[in-house]
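Fill in residues.
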């Protein structure tokens, strides 16, 4: 047996080793082929940030438009489009240079809507080397034109993958890209820079220095989960862009009028509570619809009724309305803080770098006449000049009887309605205090049996 094995050794030694070229030609892990494709005849390609029909539509391409397929996730394909994608980024996470913005971190996510809500699923992550053209602005958000390297998703049935790029592929792609950029730039408007100055839109896109977008047919490295539209994360069903939430609360146009308060206080309270409930539903669905003016109007109605009403049921309804308003403010503040903390983690920022701005900054302040409802407490160490504070929920107002009409120690621990005028207070005059003109002590809330 051993003799037979020894006899085979010369034959095995004669077998040549596989050449290195053959080994290197094998598919490597993480590599894939970029394929040329076009939108099918008689169809339109709806480009979305994630492989989910419910995510907002970024772009609709007409039949025949060229695309490049990066990878597939049946029944979806991840694609690049000529001219790049219009996306939104938060202004706090970009640097301005020569009329363009650059991501401060490689973890900055581009979004289809100016929001971090569930219906604004990230498109992908932006390279800090990309100079992004700014197209529009909404509050702290900037709409930018991202380079063609940022990919998105389309249903595979809407496109036709080509066996090989045609001879005119580069020319067709460039023509489509130029046409799209021209159309996008035509809609651009001047925006405010970081210092409040007006910035005109830049006219040319800056790609990543020294790096070209892989052409169709070239092998390319598989994009990360973030660059692939967060493919590793579970899909978050959302509303289509066409049915996206409105930009502001509809209740801003429906305040409770003072005439109703004078004519029928009970109906004014009912209307204010309905508005408050409707606004709570809006904010629960979309934090960006939170409108302090809506709550201010409702609180004004409740406070005015609490100052004048004698009916126990009406007093209870107005008190319940204020409690509801305070709860909605607290919910919104907590939800915004949670969203900012999530952004800190996602974008690799230091803990508290965003949420520090959401912390309370002392007592409330205002101008003109004021009415406030709260429990009276004494804080001499915190406010030595005007130590009496009316507290409700997590908000407080300084109150003071400048003419000595009210001995406020008699009201400590009681729920009061105060009326007066805002005045400057404190050694530097920076604090604001309600100079008391009238005070009503509310009846104690009966304990439940």
């Amino acid at each position: 047996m051993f003799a037979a094995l020894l006899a085979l050794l010369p034959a095995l030694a004669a077998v040549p080793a596989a050449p290195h070229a053959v080994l290197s030609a094998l598919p490597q892990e993480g590599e894939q082929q970029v394929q040329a494709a076009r939108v099918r005849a008689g169809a339109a390609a709806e480009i979305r940030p994630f492989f989910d029909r419910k995510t907002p539509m970024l772009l609709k391409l007409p039949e025949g438009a060229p695309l490049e397929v990066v990878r597939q996730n049946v029944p979806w394909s991840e694609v690049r489009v000529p001219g790049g994608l219009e996306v939104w980024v938060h202004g706090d996470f970009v640097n301005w240079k020569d009329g363009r913005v650059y991501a401060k971190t490689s973890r900055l996510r581009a979004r289809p809507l100016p929001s971090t809500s569930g219906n604004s699923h990230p498109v992908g992550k932006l390279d800090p080397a990309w100079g992004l053209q700014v197209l529009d602005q909404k509050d702290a958000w900037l709409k930018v034109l991202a380079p063609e390297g940022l990919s998105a998703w389309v249903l595979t049935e809407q496109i036709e993958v080509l066996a090989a790029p045609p001879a005119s592929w580069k020319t067709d792609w460039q023509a489509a890209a130029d046409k799209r950029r021209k159309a996008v730039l035509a809609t651009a408007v001047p925006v405010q820079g970081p210092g409040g100055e007006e910035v005109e839109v830049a006219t040319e896109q800056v790609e990543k220095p020294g790096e070209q977008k892989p052409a169709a047919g070239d092998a390319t490295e598989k994009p990360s989960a973030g660059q692939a539209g967060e493919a590793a994360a579970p899909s978050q069903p959302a509303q289509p862009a066409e049915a996206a939430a409105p930009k502001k609360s509809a209740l801003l146009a429906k305040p409770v009028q003072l005439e109703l308060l004078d004519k029928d206080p009970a109906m004014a309270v009912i209307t204010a509570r309905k508005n408050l409930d409707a606004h709570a539903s809006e904010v629960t669905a979309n934090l960006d619809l939170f409108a302090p003016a809506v709550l201010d109007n409702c609180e004004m109605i409740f406070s005015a009724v609490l100052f004048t009403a004698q009916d126990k049921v009406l007093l209870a309804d107005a008190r319940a309305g204020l409690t509801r308003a305070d709860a909605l403010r607290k919910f919104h503040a907590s939800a915004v803080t949670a969203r900012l903390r999530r952004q800190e983690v996602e974008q690799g920022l230091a803990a508290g770098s965003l949420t520090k701005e959401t912390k309370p900054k002392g007592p409330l302040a205002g101008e003109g006449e004021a009415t406030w409802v709260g429990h009276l407490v004494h804080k001499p160490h915190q406010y030595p000049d005007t130590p009496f504070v009316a507290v409700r929920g997590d908000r407080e107002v300084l109150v003071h009887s400048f003419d000595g009409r009210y001995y406020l120690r008699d009201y400590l621990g009681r729920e009061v309605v105060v009326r007066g005028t805002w005045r400057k207070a404190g050694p530097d005059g920076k604090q604001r205090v309600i100079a008391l003109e009238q005070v009503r002590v509310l009846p104690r809330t009966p304990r439940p049996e």
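Residues 1-31, 205-212, 218-245 have pLDDT under 50 and may be disordered.
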